[in-house]
Design brief:
- The complex is a heterodimer of chains A (about 190) and B (about 210).
- Chain A is an all-alpha fold.
- Chain A has six helices and two strands, in the order E-H-E-H-H-H-H-H.
- A two-stranded antiparallel sheet of chain A has the order 1-2.
- Chain A is rod-shaped, with a radius of gyration of 46 Å.
- In chain A, about 20% of the residues are buried.
- By secondary structure, chain B is an all-alpha fold.
- Chain B has helices at about 25-35, 40-60, 65-80, 90-110, 120-125, 140-150, 155-165, 170-180, 180-200, 200-210.
- The chains are: A mainly alpha (about 190), B mainly alpha (about 210).
- Chains A and B meet through strand 1, helix 1, strand 2 and helix 2 of A and helix 2, helix 3, helix 5, helix 6 and helix 7 of B.
Chain lengths: ~190, ~210
């Protein structure tokens, strides 16, 4: 059993055809509208209404997805931004520290180590080194880097050892010459 | 609007002589349906379900499948109605869901639409034609020949004819549905009418004109 669809033939004045269409074309269009097989099964609208109303009611009582997910998305975004900022601060703060530590470690092997070889040497003779150790961090970095640069560039290589000069005196002279070259270069 | 096609939801809703809604009516009904007005939803279904069904039948020639997909389409639309943002394109959205679903189903069943011969269509035209407009005098043979000629058109041309005459969409709505410029749709429709005219012969075409005048 079928019933007719609810829509009526259109008025071509409301929905005009292509301007090239003549009266015969319009008549064919109207005939198509009038004879279109629009018969629908009986009760179709009822069945569709009932089935879809259930979905509509369920959707009305369920919270819209965007309301559930928007705060979560905002929270996730805020966490990402915070993590990025903390990470950036950590990296920026850590970089000079690492650099300073590595320079100090190199100086410990290149400068301090030979001094410890003389157990009988007087502390007073190493006031220069003491001054270096008393420098603040930024000053020490600059001086030590200069010293290392000077050593690597051959400072003290022309030093002449005087007769009767002890090893410690030689080392101290070497260090003095290194400091002089470092200051000149600096 | 026939009595039989009014939804029997057990609800009171405004009865109209003709449920051919314009976009303003539809927007208003959608707003009411979103707010929980079941009668407004029933009115939307009463307006669009037969048209969706007719369009699907014209494409798949299977009433059962068409009804199944019509139900499924309206269930989907009802479930998503809360998040629907109205831009006056409800019908385009609805028909696109229906056609996509039909395409998926046809693909799933691995079957193509079966062209319908005039003999198969003829019984359809013998039912319920009596109250149709000024073209009452078109006999079922002529109507069957006309729609058989439609079946012979290119798929793109058939699509416009079906959307216009089965789904009852305006050219503007068809353009939105197909995502083509309006001019393209009008030109395609013009081409389809010319081909139908050629297929039917001048005599029948002139006959349509004399009946319509």
């Amino acid at each position: 059993m079928t019933e007719n669809g609810p829509w009526t033939p259109r008025n071509s004045q409301q929905d005009p055809l292509d301007p090239r269409c003549d009266a015969v074309d319009a008549a064919i269009d109207a005939a198509l509208d009038a004879t279109a097989p629009r018969d629908i099964p009986a009760g179709l609208v009822d069945r569709v209404s009932m089935a879809s109303l259930q979905q509509l009611r369920e959707a009305q009582f369920a919270p819209p997805r965007r309301l559930v997910f928007r705060p979560l998305a905002q929270l996730a975004m805020a966490a990402c931004v915070l993590l990025a900022v903390v990470g950036a601060f950590w990296l920026v703060g850590r970089q000079p520290l690492l650099e300073g530590r590595s320079v100090a470690r190199r100086m410990a092997t290149e400068v301090v180590l030979p001094v410890s070889l003389d157990p009988t040497g007087s502390v007073a003779r190493f006031q220069g080194l003491k001054r270096v150790s008393d420098l603040d961090f930024s000053g020490a970095i600059g001086n030590l880097e200069d010293v290392v640069f000077a050593v690597r560039n051959g400072a003290g290589s022309a030093l002449v050892v005087s007769p009767g000069q002890t090893d410690m005196e030689t080392i101290e002279n070497e260090l003095d010459s290194v400091r002089v070259v470092a200051r000149m270069d600096g | 609007m026939t009595e039989a096609s009014i939804p029997k939801c057990g609800l009171e809703f405004p009865r109209q002589e003709d449920f051919h809604l314009d976009s303003v009516d539809t927007t208003h009904l959608i707003t009411q349906a979103i707010a929980g007005d079941d009668a407004a939803w029933c009115a939307i279904v009463a307006e669009y379900a037969p048209r969706v069904h007719a369009l699907l039948v014209s494409n798949c020639h299977d009433h059962d499948l068409a009804e199944e997909i019509t139900q499924s389409t309206f269930c989907t639309v009802a479930a998503k109605l809360q998040s629907y943002v109205d831009q006056g394109k409800f019908s385009s959205w609805l028909f696109r869901i229906a056609m996509n679903r039909l395409r998926d189903e046809m693909r799933r069943r691995k079957r193509q639409a079966i062209p319908v011969a005039a003999e198969v269509l003829r019984p359809v035209f013998k039912t319920g034609r009596e109250d149709r407009s000024r073209h009452d005098k078109i006999d079922s043979d002529t109507a069957a020949a006309l729609w058989a000629a439609v079946q012979g058109l290119a798929e793109a041309d058939q699509q416009v004819i079906h959307l216009r005459h089965m789904a009852g969409l305006s050219f503007k709505q068809i353009a939105e549905q197909l995502e083509h410029p309006l001019g393209t749709v009008l030109a395609r429709h013009f081409r389809a009418l010319k081909r139908l005219r050629e297929a039917l012969g001048d005599e029948i075409a002139e006959d349509f004109m004399s009946r319509g005048s």
